[in-house]
Amino acid sequence: MNAQAQKVATPAGEQSHTSPRKVSGAEALILSLLAEGVDTIFGYPGGAIMPVYDSLYHYTDQVNHILTRHEQGATHAAQGYARLAKKAGVCFATSGPGATNLITGIADAQIDSTPLVCITGQVASHLLGSDAFQETDIIGISNPVTKWNFQVTRAEEIPATIAKAFYIAQNGRPGPVLIDITKDAQFGVLDFEYKKCEKIRSYRPVPQLNQGQVLQAAQLINQAQKPMILMGQGVSLAEAENDLQTFVEKTGIPVASTLLGLSSFSTHHPLYVGFLGMHGNYGPNIKTNEADLLIAVGMRFDDRVTGDLSRYAQQAKVIHIEIDPAEIDKNVKADVPVIGDAKEALQALLPLVKARSHQDWLKEFDNCQKVENEKVVSKTMQPSTPKLKMAEVVQALSDQTKGKAVIVTDVGQHQMIASRYYQFDQPNSNITSGGLGTMGFALPAAMGAKIARSDREVVAIIGDGGFQMTAQELGTLMQYQIPVKMIILNNSFLGMVRQWQELFFDRRYSFTEMVNPDFVALAKSFHIGAQRVEERNQLGEGLQNMLAHQGSFLLEVVVEKETNVFPMVPTGESISNIRLE
Amino acid sequence: MEQEQFTVTVFSEDNIGLLNRITDIFTRRKINIDSLTTSASETEGIFRFTVVISTTLANVKRIVKQLEKQVEVLKAFYYDEEDIIFQEVALYKISTQALAQSKAVEKIIRANYARILTVEPEFMVIEKTGHESETQDLFEQLKPYGILSFVRSGRVAIAKPMKRLSSYLAELGQTL
Ligand SMILES: Cc1ncc(C[n+]2csc(CCOP(=O)(O)OP(=O)(O)O)c2C)c(N)n1
Ligand SMILES: [Mg+2]
Fold it and tell me: Which residues belong to any copy of the ACT domain (chain B) (predicted)?
């Protein structure tokens, strides 16, 4: 930074708390972000946000800005960052196309409850509504996919709006917030003073536990003969992993996980019975329809978990522990809702539940796993085919990283295989796009995750299709030297869609075959280490090379082209009709 | 489940963008909004939306929770017709000639407890307050005399239960 620049801007300093000082709206934005403890911003500049970038220029010693290669990449990076940093990820984008490019990531964050604060520049307020250059109604566009949004047209509104944005994004059920700031508000001058938002009268982020509900829940738990816990992302959002484990070990209740719940409970724990849903494990799916009590903790009964609702757990009583009252009875009727924070709820329940064990019931899950091992796992782990299978790669990675890496998955067959076979042994180790199923998520999300937790090994597992949706972020990895490891499981197909075509559309492979580039050469053009593995006997060494490599590294693994992920609950089917082959 | 008509009232902060957020919650479920009225409420700074929809009981319950989930919504309620007193107002523009030519129009106005707001040389405007069936009825009766223009307002409704918004909010630990 040059000397003149430093003179122009005196960073926030202690004085700002007592005597307000005059700054531009743009600088007020940066100061507000600093006051919120923001250390990283993912963004992309343009005309309508130039004053903000100009202010940012003076604060690069206090905040790290990552120039992604596409605004969508910025949002996914911010999501990956948010999931591991446990605080809001921040994005900048310009008006018009910059802002609309954020939408996919914002929608993803909304449906997967990820806190984001997205700042967009907007045309000057006197031009609003006139179809000015790069004007787009981003407030209108983002309404359905944000937890809250607001357009700032006056500089003085900036500090309080940013404070509110962080409060809303990070409290209660987290979500994305978008703040649109007109260019004249960025140029305008205000007396800067920052007060954190502590309360909004119309919003109660964490409903208070109702003791009656807790007592009723405890009673059901104590009476149950075949209880089962369905764990969702709410456990990790509430940082309730230890509380869940204590609760489970006391009650002896088996735990199954949704896609976003994975890693919140060790896969090695004797009470862990597996992954729920469409490509989940056989046992937990089948047994959902035999249990007498389901205890849902921070999950929302997504249709990928429930299959046909009219044939879902009709025999079971349901306890639904959930922070968002709108989730109660949305899909599955709760006999006992426990509305509140998962950690508080589990702690309140703990002294009320009896120490028990459910050995016979657990044995049923074991038996199911035996069936699954025989019919599914063994075939995919020790295949007779010459080509590698995805599961072997994930298994080898799991072994080499001892289940302790952060696995960031994209969307498709490789995602389901990674979720099935990576043996998570540490919380906060699974980052994926669940609710929206956004191809192109993994590479930028892994980038953000690595920035949030440089101490952890971050491995992205990506399909050949999804990789090409955000491959330009290799440039970001290169520029900022972010040591992310990438595995492309290359089947030269949009595999998951091809699987459906094979099973439900008489093998009409309509536009799912891909002619791919040389991924290794592509990575190398970005000066990123890369290797291709085609043979089974090269796999171990390839993974070792990748993990040992200092910087980012791309390992392309050529896998069998036409293979299906099983088990599978076909769409609209009951989970009892889960197919093993 | 059977479709019924419900009146949904939403109390919110006074923010321009909220109208869209609220209507989105209905439209994303492809629920047609029969009428929508926005106005101030009895509490200063608190806005009130009155939305009339036809849907199932289970759905309206879900919708009310999704409305309340909006950060700037304080509280939402749903009512069936029994729970509320409601009115709509309709205006009818007809040619002044029609009134002059026959006594019938005057009779219709009297019988329907409607009133004449203005009489101009060419046209007059009649107002009728009531339920939709009543204002529609008047419409049918005036039709033979030529209705030049017709408009009906959205529903406004007051709930019968005596509990006030502030006491609901107090229960929720919120204050105004
Ligand atoms: C942005 C986006 N477009 C389309 C889809 C639909 N879709 C789901 S999985 C899939 C195939 C993914 O192919 P690939 O990335 O190669 O992964 P694979 O299934 O082969 O492992 C597609 C097209 C999607 N989820 N996201
Ligand atoms: Mg593929």
Answer: 7-81
CA–CA dist B116, A4 (Å, integer): 75
Q: Which pLDDT score is estimated for A18? A: 52
Q: State the pLDDT confidence band at B34, using cuts at 50, 70 and 90.
A: very high
**CB-side exposure of A199: number of CA atoms within 13 Å?**
5
Q: CB of A122 within 8 A of CB of A128?
A: yes
Q: Letter for the amino acid at A138?
A: I
Residue nearest to atom 9 of ligand 1 (CA): A412
Length in residues, chain B: 176
Neighbours of B59 (CB within 10 A): 19
A494 lines ligand 1 (CB under 6 A): yes
Cα-based angle A407, A408, A411 (whole degrees, multiple of 5) = 125
DSSP bridge pairs for B157: B86
**Nearest neighbour of B69 by CB, restricted to A144, A200, A326:** A326
- CA of A112, closest CA in chain B: separation in Å? 16
Nearest CA to ligand 1 atom 3: A439
Ordered DSSP codes for A459-510: EEEEEHHHHTTSGGGHHHHHHHT---EEEEEE-SB-HHHHHHHHHHSTT--T
* Cβ neighbours around B52 below 10 Å, total: 20
Low pLDDT (below 70) residues in chain A: 1-19
List the domains of chain B with CATH numbers. 4-79 (3.30.70.260), 87-152 (3.30.70.1150)
What is the number of other CB atoms lying within 10 angstroms of the CB of residue B74? 24
pLDDT tens profile A227-260: 999 999 999 999 999 999 999 999 999 999 999 9
Tell me the per-residue pLDDT of A335-365, one tens digit each, with 9 for 90 and over. 999 999 999 999 999 999 999 999 999 999 9
Which residues does A314 contact at the CB level (< 8 Å), separation at least 6? A289
Which of A580, A570, A581 minimizes the C-alpha distance to A278?
A570
β-bridge mates for residue B84, sequence order: B159
Give the amino acid at A28. Answer: A
Q: Using 50, 70 and 90 to split pLDDT, how confident is the model at B168?
A: confident
**Predicted local confidence at residue B175, as pLDDT:** 63
